[in-house]
Amino acid sequence: MSPRLAVGDFTIHRIVEQETTFLPALDMLPALTGERLAENRTWMKGAKALDDEDTLILCFQAYVVKTPHHTILIDSCIGNDKPRPARPKWHMKTDDTFLRGLASAGVSVGDIDYVMCTHLHVDHVGWNTRLENGRWVPTFPNARYVFGKREFDHWTEQNANAPVPPFVDSVLPIVEADRAEIVTDDFAIGDHARILPTPGHTPGHVAFTFGKAKDAAVFSGDLMHSPLQARYPELSAKFDTDPKQAAATRRGFLERYCDTDTLCCTAHFPSPSTGRIRRWGDGFKCEAM
Predict the structure, then answer these.
(1) Are 189 and 211 contacting, i.e. CB atoms less than 8 angstroms apart?
(2) What average pLDDT does the segment 197-202 reach?
(3) For residue 238, is it within any domain?
């Protein structure tokens, strides 16, 4: 069975595609010093967020949220058959891990009503499409795919300058199939799902909040990749479009949910990946339930 959490009147299932080493901590977090890494090595290794070579361990996953009215997929991971030569673990992948994860959550591709993308990076849109007779087609045939307008416009402009492979094979086919909803920040699904703008990692990055009349759960996307960034919100990843804005957004997000009952569901923290935000000195931690 996939990991399942009951929150209020909805349930959350984690769909883990990979949990693996990614990049050296000092490479991925440019402002991190060797001294600070040494100070945090013990607890990071204990959390299975760092290996013996000081390489960050990340989880690549999606979440299925079942509300009383809809079945919603948050992000869509890496995908199969996608040319990703810069990432050997993702390149032309053919395994069934993701689809098996959906099945273990009791969900088929036809059951998904909405696919909601926090942003349009390669490891968050991969299963938007699948290869069928040489064409990219929507993996979830009955779903509406929710893309933030600022994010979509940003990548449309980038793609016009030079093709962006994940945009070409995992986003544009959705638009061409008339399954996309390009939305602004006031978008909501029923009385349960809302957008929370969280720019910095990308210009249009968003988080998604769930809960009837309150934020019972929040899906943070790539607002932060590692528990080190909760402990030290000023540590921005080298992939952040605007590191300064990302750091300010991250601290604001963590302050917003600190010491509340809101469940924070991260995209890349090691298992169990979810918890409640608590203060830790001048920083924070995501305390597992």
Answers:
(1) no
(2) 98
(3) no
